[in-house]
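[09:14] KT: can someone run the structure on this one? pasting the chain below
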Amino acid sequence: MQMQNFAPLMFASLVFVMLIGFPVAFSLSALGLICGFIAIEMNWFPANFMANLPLNVFGILSNDLLLAIPFFTFMGSILEKCGLAEDMLDSMGQLFGPVKGGLGYSVIIVGFILGAITGTVAGQVIAMALISLPVMLRYGYNMRYATGVLAASGTITQLVPPSLVLIVMADQLGRSVGDMYKGAWGPAILQVGFFALYTFALGIVKPSHVPGVPRQARTLVGWALWSKCLKGIIPSAILIFAVLGSMGGLPGIHTAIATPTEAGAMGCVGGLCCWLRYTGD
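[09:31] RB: done, structure tokens below
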């Protein structure tokens, strides 16, 4: 076997293991170890590289910056499980319902908000697809557009703070997480604008692909509709902007009063408070 052919083989093995339903974390670790032993057997690198692996693991665990990742993940999990996503999608769908592509706009906007809550792509796409896709297909949306806008809205999570990818990049580049977050706001908003512009254009060119929601399906009107929208947006917005603002991750804020790890811990506490307030448990 040639060394240059080994990387494509590793990637193909990873895809195969993931397709059979094996958890990603175990797939990555098992394949990494197996490929490492194969590389040692082929004399592509020395065996002491594997002996240094525990040191690398302990080095990662002692990195204070990377401790922010489980905090932000836990915050997103709390806010996602309390029913916030379902209520926002329902209320936004009824708010934009009369407009051509209204459900598409609601998916894009809620995807942007959920991206700032969850910080992970997989959780957001799964939550959005389970809630939105059956509704969009029921009202006659084109399958290609419906699945495309759901997948595209998930990519917003890679850019919109508090993106976990940006935390890892800040650690590797030796930059401030707050600076990375401030630099990501412009591209994230631009991406949302492109998705909305495409939906608007599709509503003009092919209106049958993105029909409006029938009047009988819109159960909320007036203040009841607006209050339901605000009930989901305001708590999450306050929490997100408080967390990002505390570490200088918002445009116009140049002083950080908390580290990313401290801000993540504060977000977890705020998420639990939102859970209690939102669910009443």
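[09:33] KT: thanks! The two ends are 60 Å apart (CA to CA).
[09:34] RB: yep, looked fine to me
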